[in-house]
Write a structure and sequence with these properties.
about 120 residues, alpha+beta, Nuclear Transport Factor 2, Chain: A, six-stranded mixed beta sheet, 3 helices, 6 strands, globular
Length: about 120
């Protein structure tokens, strides 16, 4: 499986805001995920639930910008900026690096979010 192609497809979906379907399509069932806020997901279904809940709290997407991606062996690092107005009146502006480890089947087995600011 060509990991670079898989990363490009996944990053394209994320750039379009299709984050839940990106997780559904590209995550292995036992994939783990963690973020800089110390939230840890231990499988694909937990990550889908987290993303559905988060996306449901967005009132307006002001922008999702994919800056660049690096692929090295079975690991990738994608840099994004996310700009959202939330239903509770707050706003979110995240500049993140998303590091992923991929298996031989082209599925994410580990994902970590890092604050790039």
């Amino acid at each position: 499986m060509n990991i670079k192609e898989q990363v490009q497809k996944m990053d394209g979906m994320v750039s379009q805001g299709d984050i839940v379907n990106a997780v559904k399509e590209f995550f292995a069932d036992d994939a783990t995920s963690s973020d800089y806020g110390k939230t840890v997901m231990s499988d694909k279904n937990q990550m889908i639930g987290k993303m559905e809940g988060f996306l449901g709290s967005i009132a307006k997407v002001n922008g999702i910008t994919h800056h660049r991606t690096i692929v090295d062996g079975d690991a990738s690092a994608s840099e994004f900026t996310f700009d959202f107005d939330m239903k509770d009146g707050s706003s979110i502006f995240w500049h993140e690096i998303i590091r992923r480890v991929w298996n031989d089947n082209g599925q994410v087995v580990q994902e970590e979010y890092f604050n790039a600011e």
